[in-house]
């Protein structure tokens, strides 16, 4: 499944404690790099969020911002164990009767362990909602990446078809190029006043044909086209593999251009380089 590395996703969720909102942006990057911005109430989720993102994205620079807006009055609410406080007060009065010097004020009572209820249990629901929101945003981001990846895949396949056509054209006129080269040699050698040694003409022709022989380059270009098409069908991250293939394509196109013995081959080599560069630019954005 082809996926682009450029995408954006956002989502909101209303909870009993307030409103959660998330924004995710990703751009192309050699590896997976995640930047997180979390509110204090949700910092404990950092490891889980990182695991969720890494499980679903292979590459890209991803910025994830999670925001929490408490419901009206939620921030000021204080949960107190009233039964426990009453017991502490009774105990304090009993002790005060026996120990007059004992002084227990309200602030000291509130700081007593267990008086203020631990809100972690209340925040569990908020944190669970936050993780669900992260999953929603990841779903949207993956859908966007896949749509853009499908578009890039179509672009790449069109270029591969064109490259295959150019390779076929060069291969088709190779016999004509070789025949023209032999004719030029025969014409030049015929103008020489001294006769050649037996077999010398054939040796010179073979030597020159070897210098312009591009059969191997054409074969390798054809093999690269087939491999690229195969990779495009894989259901995994293929960006790096395709990037390597682009380097191989470019190497063969350069060699083809250096060996070109006629304008048509030169033109084909130039067109190949243009197509390969177009593909390389798009491959850089594939996961």
What does this structure look like?
- It is a single chain.
- A four-stranded mixed sheet has the order 1-2-4-3, with helices on one face.
- It has 287 residues and is an alpha+beta fold.
- It is rod-shaped and about 135 Å long.
- It has three domains: 7-74 and 122-144, Ribosomal Protein S5, domain 2; 80-116, no CATH class; 148-283, no CATH class.
- It is built from eight helices and four strands; from the N terminus they run E-E-E-H-E-H-H-H-H-H-H-H.
Q: Which descriptor suits the 3D outline?
A: rod-shaped
Q: In what order do the strands lie side by side in the largest sheet?
A: 1-2-4-3
Level of helix content?
A: 55-70%
**So how many helices?**
8
Task: Specify the structural class.
Answer: alpha+beta
Model regions low in confidence, pLDDT < 50 over at least 5 residues? none
Number of domains: 3
DSSP strand (E) fraction? 5-15%
Overall pLDDT score? 85
**Strand/helix succession:** EEEHEHHHHHHH
Specify the biggest β-sheet: 4 strands, mixed
Distance between the termini: 10 Å
Overall strand count? 4
User: How large is the radius of gyration?
Assistant: 36 Å
